[in-house]
Amino acid sequence: MVNWFRKQRPAWPDARVLVLDLEMTGLNAQEDSIISAGWVVIEQGRIELSLAGHQYFQPTAMMASDVSASAHIHMITDHLLEQQGQPLGHWLQRLNGDLLADRWVFHHAPIDMAFLKMFSQRLDIVLPSVTIEDTVLLEQKRFSDLTLESQQQLSLTACRARHRLPAYRQHHALSDALATAELYLALMTDSQ
Questions:
Q1: Structural Rg of the chain based on CA atoms
Q2: How many helices (H) and strands (E) does the chain have?
Q3: 68-90, pLDDT tens digit by residue?
Q4: What region holds the Exonuclease domain (predicted)?
Q5: Do the Cβ atoms of 183 and 162 come closer than 8 Å?
Q6: What CATH code is carried by the domain that includes residue 140?
């Protein structure tokens, strides 16, 4: 039975896909902060680099007090956030505006989604209703004959290597979003 009131989502590759990567001060959405985001748009099955972007976020009272514990991983400093950061709320609102998409893709979606949900609730911003896809799960499904369970085997770099994709700088939100977009396209192409 067709639900005529539910928005019909376009099928791949007609869907507008927003590939997102967040850099955080840690992995606990209750205690840590989103400090940068990178995004890449896929339209008609192609990466549109002209629509890609990156944003640092200003520190606020609701965010972790500093990034010193994680700066060695992502190379983002408190000074950088103070100088180049924008309000996180403005960017979250863009997810309903110019960044609106049919699908969001992440590499290990539960972590990023926990942060997006937590901070959108704190800032009283409603996230759009979109299909969430996870390249980790797609990779596990694609290689179901292999036992891919460890963090190392499921890292973005390891997944890309299995598809003969080049290595990129890790822990920069934009380069990770691009790397995830390329992996997603490889996985979707393989599944057809």
A1: 17
A2: 7, 5
A3: 555 445 556 666 677 788 999 99
A4: 16-192
A5: no
A6: 3.30.420.10
In a domain, 34, yes or no: yes
Report H helices in 13-163: 71-74, 78-84, 88-94, 109-122, 135-142, 156-162
Residue 83 lies in a domain: yes
Strands 34-43 and 17-24: antiparallel
Residue 13: in which H helix or E strand, if any? none
Contact assessment for residue 112 and residue 20, using Cβ atoms and an 8 Å cutoff: yes
Residue 190: count other Cβ atoms within 10 Å of its Cβ. 10
Residue 148 neighbours by CB under 8 Å, 6+ apart: 139, 140, 154
Q: 2-61, pLDDT tens digit by residue?
A: 444 445 556 778 899 999 999 988 889 998 889 999 999 999 999 999 999 999 998 776
Residue 144: CB atoms within 10 A of its CB come to 9
Range of the domain at 144: 17-191
